[in-house]
């Protein structure tokens, strides 16, 4: 079993488990956090598929914008900050473990990138033909090529436009006659 297969299995478990938490959790805030983790797993799949533009878009748009917007909306509309809530976190051990794990990962990446022996740690680098500019140009061409993705791209744009118009119609206050 190669390292890419192991990473794929880990990402699949994370993505599917967090997706299951999103649809089964009754706490809206926890579901939004699980949705962010699911989006992160999808970004990992894009990295495995060697699509850096899509991975960066997934991180910036879905995790960085949409998920944060949903969490802000939940926090502003719900009474999460009521006086009967405990000011202390009961899950500090899990938070400490997660912090140490992420901190160790960040330190590992920084050391491996800036180390003079970085070639030893990062043995498989992408060939120059898979540069970001080439894959982005290839993605743009495939979106407008009639033989590839122009129909699904147009259907998705019409669907998003319909969702936008529907959300405006729902949010607009009704006139009292």
Distance from N terminus to C terminus (CA atoms, Å) equals 69 Å
Q: Considering DSSP H and I runs of 4 or more, what fraction of the residues is helical?
A: over 70%
SS elements, strand count = 0
Note the main sheet: none
Going by CATH, the homologous superfamily of the domain at 1-80 would be NADH-ubiquinone/plastoquinone oxidoreductase chain 6, subunit NuoJ
Rg (CA only)? 21 Å
Give the number of helices.
7
Structure characterization notes:
It is built from seven helices and no strands. It has a domain at 1-80: Four Helix Bundle (Hemerythrin (Met), subunit A) (Up-down Bundle), CATH 1.20.120. Helix 1 packs antiparallel against helix 2 and helix 2 (28-48) runs antiparallel to helix 3. The model has no long low-confidence stretch (mean pLDDT 79). By secondary structure, it is mainly α.
Compose a concise summary of this entry:
With 177 residues, the protein is mainly alpha-helical. The chain is 74% helix and 0% strand.
Key features of this structure:
Four Helix Bundle (Hemerythrin (Met), subunit A); single chain; mainly alpha; flat; 177 residues; 7 helices; 0% strand
What does the secondary structure layout of this molecule look like, with pairings?
Elements (H helix, E strand, L loop, with lengths): L2 H22 L3 H21 L3 H26 L14 H23 L3 H4 L10 H13 L5 H22 L6
